[in-house]
Design brief:
CATH superfamily of the largest domain: Reverse transcriptase/Diguanylate cyclase domain
CATH topology of the largest domain: Alpha-Beta Plaits
Radius of gyration: 33 Å
Number of strands: 10
CATH class of the largest domain: Alpha Beta
CATH architecture of the largest domain: 2-Layer Sandwich
Distance between the termini: 60 Å
Number of domains: 4
Strand order of the largest sheet: 2-1-3-4-5
Structural class: alpha/beta
Helix content: 55-70%
């Protein structure tokens, strides 16, 4: 291949950088876009030049090659790292393997070694590029994506306007999905959320697990089916296969409920449509199945409900009494979690055989007013839109569990320190840096440990509020102090370096000149 790859060379020896650069011609397939004598300068070049490859010496001052490779792997995952080393210690080799570094140049460097290294690296990069972008790879990716395309098309059909139905049908037929050959039923499967699965990611994992269990049960039967996710439901389309079709559907779905409950420790509720035929009926089948599910939950009809079972008699609605409202308000503000749970449990018992939706709205309203009263932004605390959350909840038990958790989260937030926002946290860190910059062992990790923060979060705060990095900001503090001492004191430059937190006076001089454009000595003379 004729790809040309860009490279940055990092080595504290000018002679090594020059020797490698002289061997990197256009014919090699590489172009050196920058060189650096230490890891700090290398990171700046990587940020501005976005190279394909960074070739770095392992043994360097300030930041060694292992630490530089670690930062590159975390911050610039598309950049390939190669090592220049004469050190074959076990620790270096082990860490290199962990960092997925596979390219090495070993000192002392010879012309043949450099040419062989570049040739091998070019071959590896070309192969990697070919694997990602070749026609065969694209075709393979397409084949792997077909199940997702089928799911998306089936989901779109549930709510599609008439003008969209035929194009979607043709798409599905192209993927080998046909619903016009024989009748089918559509079933909606809803998992009851509990305290272990309020987290969105955990709940999505649970949905996939339940779906896999149902597909496995259906796979052992003679039923043909399609499955996909739609909102909070797992949808199954089950195609007729004989005279005992509905009995077989009932048997498989009932066994599924029991199996999931036993092994995954969660309850599932299923609504099943009447027999339908054709793509055009898919939306109607979904409406029937979801109505069967919803009515079954409201009327406590069981975990498996068919559209044919539904009664046309409306249920009586139930709301909070004045006494319940007052008790819940008091428990939210002043009671214990156990007291709130007991009150919600009493309300739940009273609503067992009634339409509980108005009851849910009443309790939700209490939560909103409670949050407003204690000065809490409820949407931020719950990390979701409260109305969307309530509408997704499918049972009274599930709602009561959510309400109990939401009340606790609002209370915790109301009692938290007001300084817990990002700008105030960063100000605390800056004050700490200003007081401790002379510490020669001061690192970002140490500051995070001291203030109870993560490295990634502190990095985000510096980027968001100061448009810089931790290292750059700390260096600026040290340089401002150094300038003041050089102007106003007679301290030797080595003493100024130590007072700024630098062990190495030469590295201090390097940073100072980079920051001010002058060496420490020239700066002092100019500002004498």
């Amino acid at each position: 291949m004729n790809n040309e790859y860009t490279m940055i060379l990092v080595d504290d020896e000018d002679e090594v950088r020059g020797r490698i650069s002289s061997r990197i011609s256009q014919a090699s397939g590489f172009r050196v876009v920058g060189t650096a004598g230490n890891g700090y300068d290398a990171l700046e070049l990587i940020d501005s030049l976005s190279p394909d490859v960074v070739l770095t010496d392992i043994k360097m001052p300030y930041i060694d090659g292992i630490e530089l490779a670690t930062i590159i792997r975390r911050e610039y995952p598309t950049v390939r790292v190669g090592f220049i080393t004469g050190y074959n210690e076990f620790d270096y080799a082990r860490q290199a393997v962990q960092l997925q570094v596979r390219s090495y140049l070993t000192k002392p460097l010879t012309e043949a070694d450099i040419i062989e290294f570049l040739t091998q690296l070019k071959t590896e990069l070309d192969q990697e590029y070919e694997n990602r972008y070749s026609r065969e790879s694209i075709l393979k990716e397409y084949k792997n994506s077909v199940p997702i395309l089928i799911e998306n098309s089936l989901a779109a059909l549930l709510t599609a306007a008439k003008a969209r139905v035929n194009p979607l049908v043709e798409q599905l037929k192209g993927y080998g999905v046909f619903l016009d050959d024989r009748p089918y039923v559509l079933s909606v499967v809803r998992i009851e959320r509990n305290s272990l699965h309020w987290d969105v990611l955990e709940f999505e994992k649970l949905k996939l697990s339940v779906r896999g269990n149902i597909e496995k049960s259906l796979g052992t039967s003679a039923l043909d089916f399609y499955s996909f996710l739609f909102h909070e439901f797992i949808i199954f389309i089950l195609k007729e296969n004989g005279t005992r079709f509905l009995q077989e559907v009932d048997s498989v779905l009932y066994q599924t409920i029991r199996t999931v409950e036993h092994f995954l420790k969660v309850r599932v509720f299923i609504g099943v449509s009447n027999l339908r035929k054709g793509f055009n009926d898919l939306g109607g089948a979904y409406e029937e199945a979801s109505r069967a599910y919803e009515t079954g939950r409201l009327q406590n009809l069981g975990q498996l409900v068919y559209a044919s079972q539904l009664s046309r008699q409306p249920m009586q609605s139930i709301t909070l009494t004045q006494a319940e409202t007052q008790d819940l308000q008091h428990a939210l503000r002043y009671g214990t979690p156990e007291q709130l749970a007991e009150l919600l449990n009493d309300v739940q018992k009273r609503a067992k055989t009634a339409d509980f939706r108005l009851l849910m709205m009443g309790i939700t309203n209490l939560l909103v007013h409670y949050a407003q009263a204690v000065g809490v932004e409820i949407q931020e605390v719950l990390s979701t839109d409260i109305l969307e959350t309530v509408l997704r909840i499918g049972s009274l038990e599930e709602f009561m569990g959510w309400a109990l958790q939401a009340g606790g989260q609002i209370r915790e937030e109301s009692q938290a320190e007001k300084r817990n926002n990002g700008a105030q946290l960063l100000e605390i860190v800056i004050q700490y840096l200003q007081a401790n910059f002379a510490n020669k062992n001061l690192t970002m990790q140490q500051v995070c440990d001291e203030k109870g923060l993560s490295v990634s979060y502190l990095s985000q705060l510096f980027k968001k509020y100061k448009n810089t990095t931790f290292v750059t900001f700390l260096t600026a503090i040290r340089m401002e102090y150094a300038q003041e001492k050089l102007r106003l004191s007679g301290k030797r430059i080595v003493e100024v370096a130590e007072a700024c937190g630098y062990r190495d006076v030469y590295y201090f001089s390097h940073c100072f000149k980079k920051h001010t454009g002058l060496s420490p000595k020239a700066y002092r003379e100019e500002h004498a």
